[in-house]
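[job 0412] stage=fold_complex status=start
inputs:
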Amino acid sequence: MPLNLHDTLTRETREAFPMDGHSFRFYCCGPTVYGPAHIGNFRTFVMQDVFRRVLETSGHETLHVRNITDVDDKTIKQSQSEGVPLKEFTDRWSAFFNRDCELLNLMTPHAVPSAVDHIPEQISLISRLIEAGNAYQADDGSVYFKVDSFAKYGRLSRLADREITTDVISRESSDEYDRDSAADFALWKARRPEDGDNFWNSPWGEGRPGWHIECSAMSMKYLGESFDLHSGGVDLIFPHHENEIAQSESVTGKTFARHWFHIAHLMVEGKKMSKSLGNLHTLEDLSKRGFKPQEVRYVLLSGSYRQPLNFTFDSLKAAQKALSKLQSFAEKIQFQAGSEDSLETNFGPFQSVQDALLSDLNTPEALGRLFSLIRELRDISDEEELEAVRVGFQATCDAFGFIIDSKPQAESAPEQVQILAQQRWDAKQAKDWSTADQLRQEILAFGWTVKDGKDGFVLAKA
RNA sequence: GGCGCGGUAGCCAAGUGGUAAGGCCGGGGACUGCAAAUCCUCUAUUCGCCGGUUCGAUUCCGGCCCGCGCCUCCA
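[job 0412] stage=fold_complex status=done
writing structure:
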């Protein structure tokens, strides 16, 4: 069964398949590294990760590229205000981003190119655009893409016939760059005093690349002039992806990306995330509030990627419970998580879960089926059947990117607490209930709680 | 104004032209010295409002109300 995925360009759900019949090549617009990424950003990256996982658990090979945007107005301004060189600044936030990705169990892309590391490639692309008559240098030294030169401009966003509103005109007049038409966008930005040391030499003088050109240059370098799929948040449809198509196809004359995959935004408590509302959560913030990255991942997968998803603390708590339910199931079937070096492809009894994922990455439907199946499969005792359940559960966890293990790493309690807990257990074995209860209170005073099992106790933070 | 999306139980959220998945919360039960965990079970005569098409619509069409996104560098 193939993976069917909605395509923004055609507005149809189409089969996503590798054009070379072998490896699925796709590009994801990565973060601008000027601060910590928030969970809205990660909704996009988590969905892209699941997309890759669904391909790989279906037996496809992938070639996954995700860039780092490390030069733009924000990175420059922010690094300057901190008095740090741009590279040092962006390296720091790139590392921070990578750490968050690891915490969320995102598979590492096969290539993670950065804009600053690909200045020559971008310059080369711009040169070709000028030669082909699709770009021009304005009086201020900047180079712009001539939107009128690309007939298909606006096809992706369907904004081709949009009117120039007063809003746009006022922005244009306050723009510090000169261009022929308000729709034209910068490929190369001439050096300005406020850019400081952050400029590079080019055939058009000192300056820096515009935003859109980096993704064209890097995607084509690593994936070829024509590749299988391009992805990002919905906000990138216009102008970013529209501009990438114009630049790339003007140069190559070939279809840039065959499939466009866009992820809807995350809302927080029914509202758009914004700094002013104070609802821009990061993994670090949520961790301080006691929530684990995997729980965040679960919430991000609990809604359809094509619809805005409402993030609430209630849903985060629901995710905790739901995951512990999977944990219980894993313990019941004595599941041991395998290595993630290669993903399991045999879903077996969990086939219907994979089917839901293959149906336009319907993660909520897939989760629904997973929980229904768990109820049915938990009482299987035949060892052969049980093994098939374990394998299928592995494939399921691999597809969602969940790490479930039947042996949870218990937080090690202070020695004092462990001694008390052992004493309590001994008292309990001696049926000395009053001593046992008293010790439970003492343990609680240390912030720990005891859970009894058949053969012993487990300590957990209260 | 232009383009686009959505309104499903207390919350999150799927889905279908044929009579509403799943998770959380809540109720009941089993188990349990206590506690927790775990398991079983129950909970929308109804899918924003009003019309239309149809044997039948939450699902298709039209109108209305409400919310949201994008409209030049925000995932």
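[job 0412] summary: The two ends of chain A are 47 Å apart (CA to CA).
[job 0412] exit 0
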